[in-house]
Design goal:
The structure is a homotetramer of 183-residue chains.
Chain A (H helix, E strand, L loop, with lengths): L3 E5 L5 H13 L2 E4 L8 H9 L2 E7 L7 H8 L2 H5 L7 E8 L6 H14 L3 E3 L25 E4 L11 H21 L1
Parallel strand pairs in A: 1-2, 1-3, 3-4, 4-5, 4-6
Chain lengths: 183, 183, 183, 183
């Protein structure tokens, strides 16, 4: 059993790659939603047993892909029974634009966490926002609620900006530390 | 061809009933998303030809049901070609709580409309917010971006508050008028 | 020194009254923003020393009153120095409508907490959303991110719905417990 | 009388400079909020007479500066009398980070417009989001609800990215066209 789970949907592999990099560093378990928006029973158990859950999804049309939303809809019975009350939550999202309405995704992820009675961990990093800042720096996108990633529309999974991957790794490690403090 | 389309997903019939009541008054066409989140070709054509589109969906777990999001995801090629640029948009949502995070749904609906280069019509009604206000009044829920409906968790489709249905009807008629002005 | 501070602005006394009721139960210190949006040095110290901060403000025109925003703007140097990193945060808002765009206020409060590197505590309560629910029940407004209060436009400070006051009290006690767990 | 007004607050001159550039192209009137958050009577009249209003402000601590919020609070009597009903609205925001929570500002601007019974015009531009995109391109920040501007923390008013200024100019011209269509 892992104390931290990253529940992830990835349409083209970018989000999955980032999640894998972050999970490796923190001993988090990856719970991957399938192309039909489903999890198997073992995966549900991994989420139920984890002390913390990180939502990981790209932003499509202003929010998570429908498969991730199908997963969220399937948590409604857990919600009714307060099954995830007091879990620690975080989230990150990738899109091909700098903003790309990723913040609407993050706001929804925070809302989902709140509905489950959760505790949300912010990114906790200042932005790199001077003229010298580049995409190898940590948090050049200037997120606060969670980690933001931007991969150009024509970039492969090997071309995700290094600074953004590092931002996610630092953030997932931070969520892991807060879980330790709370338990 | 109808100038106004209401694209609707309804899990238990409440949202559909409200949409039907509003459509009847304004000669809008109802475009109902099926249980698998799909539309047929005729339905896509109805949306493409309409001058305005109203998003209608309940709020589940802080946003539209996955079937409605699947519809939204399927509009990404229309988005890339600016197929809905300058269409008029509006939205309404029903949930079993007074708030129930319906505003997160509305914010996302506005975001989707913005991505498509749309023009968003607000509700345009003051709230009924005095001590005498009751659920037969128009806009007792105090929405502004779009119309809000609250149907208690144990209420049938025949028990939707009268004032909320009336609010949606007034709003859909308002969107229809704005379309006329713009075209 | 109190571990929990409630930083409050109240235009007509309703929000202050609720904050006082909640503070009394939890030994929280009230930090009241004045009519010009200012705090004195002792008040800043109370905030800096607290392990947790609850944002308390009515919703005017879709967000906190300008005085509360002036307070938030004045925290920018604390932000730059990470002075409130890892503090626990929560928030509540009152308005005269059921919704009244209070959720936009809550979203902003969460954003402010995130910018400061904070940890946000959700309400943690299911809604009272059946036909029998009334305004004496806890969380009849159906909030999730924080506590929501609705006081009709013509209601005095003695007519705030009992259930809403109780909701805030339960929430503030919950934030206090999470602080204990984290420290 | 100008059909379009840009109501602007600028802390360090960047937002004002952008607003001036956009106003010059469209014959819009600039209504500048003073350092105390106030407008004079002539300025209020300019806003009341305009067919459309664009909100222009930097993002400080997750939303507009308090001076802009003070202006918004002062519109509550106009709100109660539906004085701005059916006006056309838009908005843009500048901050020193790519994201910098500017979307929370935009969401609030949309909410304020909705409370006034307004019609919101989206940006209407696809993002420049390929590997070749740079800050001279239009909409490299990938906004949708309104125009986004990012000026590094150490950049003067003469160093605002050219593409962002161009984005605002195109957007303001677009809002002006929609006003013509509606009137």
């Amino acid at each position: 059993m892992s104390k931290l789970a990253i529940v992830v949907f990835s349409g083209y592999g970018h989000t999955l790659k980032i999640a894998e990099a972050a999970a490796a560093d923190t001993d988090a378990v990856l719970v991957e939603i399938d192309a039909n928006g489903d999890l198997d029973e073992d995966q549900w158990q991994q989420l139920n047993e984890a002390k913390g859950i990180i939502f990981a999804a790209p932003t499509y049309m202003g929010n998570v892909p429908w498969q991730f939303k199908k997963f969220a809809d399937a948590t409604s019975s857990i919600w009714a029974q307060r099954g995830w009350q007091n879990k620690v939550f975080g989230g990150f999202s990738n899109s091909s634009s700098m903003n790309g309405d990723k913040q609407v995704t993050l706001i929804w992820m925070q809302t989902l966490a709140s509905q489950h009675g959760g505790i949300w961990v912010s990114l906790g990093l200042l932005p790199a926002n001077t003229k010298e800042a580049d995409r190898n720096d940590v948090n050049t996108l200037g997120g606060s609620a969670g980690a933001l990633v931007q991969t150009p529309a024509d970039a492969s999974v090997n071309e995700i900006p290094r600074g953004d991957i590092e931002t996610v790794k630092i953030y997932v490690a931070r969520v892991s530390e807060i879980i330790d403090k709370l338990n």
